[in-house]
């Protein structure tokens, strides 16, 4: 990891929400974001060169790996960090959610996260880089009607802890555990699965600042897990 800037940081889900906020924070810190998403960022949300954007559906793990390798290649083979912000959900009772929709949540949130890290790992290890995986408070506790999301985010935490144990001394691994945020993540849901009008949600820019904090740790010092919630939000503990 470079010391003067964050260097080159690959951000999944970088076209919107937390991912876009992280990518903007990387730019503000003098770094170069590489954005991986299903669609390109809208103008004004995030302005990055076209060559630094890769379009892929993370539910296809092999395509995700290929897209990561291509982005890193375009960046000259240099990669300092990966932040896995992409995520999806399928709310509803377990026996009511379509099987393909349920599987897709796990494929995107968990298997897609692992695929991105797998493809980026050789370049990261060359730079003694860092990975920030994005879990959720629902990776540590459960709610009804959220079996797919909870399963995937519990999995992200387990994957991240095991990855940290496996790569200790060679790769920095942080698991971000955020509570609710003011993003489009809840759009399109039935009313019962949306935050209420009085819900206290964090701004994605504020959560992105905690990602920068994790990436900025000096060599040999790591923030292993970082729980970030609104101060009066009820999803933790």
Layout of strands and helices, then pairs:
Layout: E1 8-12, H1 17-28, E2 32-37, E3 53-55, H2 61-74, E4 81-84, H3 99-126, E5 130-134, H4 147-167, E6 172-178, H5 204-215, E7 225-228
Parallel strand pairs: 1-2, 1-4, 2-3, 4-5, 5-6, 6-7
Helix pairs in contact: 1-5, 2-3, 3-4
Description:
By secondary structure, this protein is of the alpha/beta class. The protein has one domain (8-228): 3-Layer(aba) Sandwich (Rossmann fold). Helices cover 37% and strands 14% of the residues. It has five helices and seven strands; from the N terminus they run E-H-E-E-H-E-H-E-H-E-H-E. The protein has a seven-stranded parallel β-sheet, with helices on both faces. Helix 1 packs across helix 5 (204-215), helix 2 (61-74) packs parallel to helix 3 (99-126) and helix 3 packs parallel to helix 4 (147-167). The longest helix has 28 residues, at 99-126. It is globular and about 45 Å long. The mean pLDDT is 92.
How do the strands of the widest beta sheet line up side by side? 3-2-1-4-5-6-7
β-strand amount: 5-15%
Spell out the CATH superfamily: NAD(P)-binding Rossmann-like Domain
**Count of DSSP helices?**
5
Strand count: 7
CATH architecture: 3-Layer(aba) Sandwich
CATH topology: Rossmann fold
| Helix proportion | 25-40%
> How many structural domains are formed by the residues?
1
Structural class: alpha/beta
Which stretches are low in confidence, meaning pLDDT under 50 for 5 or more residues running?
Answer: none
What Rg, in angstroms, do the CA atoms define? 17 Å
Shape: globular
Main beta sheet strand tally, sense and closure: 7 strands, parallel
- The CATH class name reads Alpha Beta
Compute the separation of the termini in Å. Answer: 33 Å
């Amino acid at each position: 990891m470079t010391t003067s800037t964050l260097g080159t940081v690959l951000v999944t889900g970088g076209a919107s929400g937390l991912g876009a906020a992280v990518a903007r924070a990387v730019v503000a810190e003098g770094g170069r974001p590489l954005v991986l998403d299903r669609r390109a960022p809208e103008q004004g949300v995030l302005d990055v060169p076209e060559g630094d954007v890769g379009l892929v559906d993370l539910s296809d793990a092999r395509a995700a790996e290929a897209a990561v390798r291509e982005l890193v290649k375009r960046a000259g083979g240099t990669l300092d960090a990966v932040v896995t912000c992409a995520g999806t959900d399928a709310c509803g009772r377990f026996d009511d959610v379509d099987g393909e929709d349920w599987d897709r949540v796990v494929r995107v949130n968990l298997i897609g996260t692992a695929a991105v890290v797998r493809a980026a790992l050789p370049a990261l290890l060359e730079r003694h880089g860092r990975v920030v995986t994005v879990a959720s408070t629902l990776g540590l506790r459960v709610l009804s009607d959220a079996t797919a999301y909870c399963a995937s985010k519990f999995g992200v935490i387990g994957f991240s802890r095991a990855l940290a144990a496996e790569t200790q001394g060679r790769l920095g691994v942080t698991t971000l555990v955020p509570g609710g945020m003011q993003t489009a993540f809840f759009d399109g849901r039935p009313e019962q699965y949306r935050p209420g009008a009085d819900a206290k949600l964090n701004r994605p820019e504020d959560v992105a600042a905690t990602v920068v904090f994790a990436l900025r740790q000096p060599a040999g010092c790591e923030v292993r897990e970082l729980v970030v919630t609104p101060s009066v939000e009820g999803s933790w503990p």
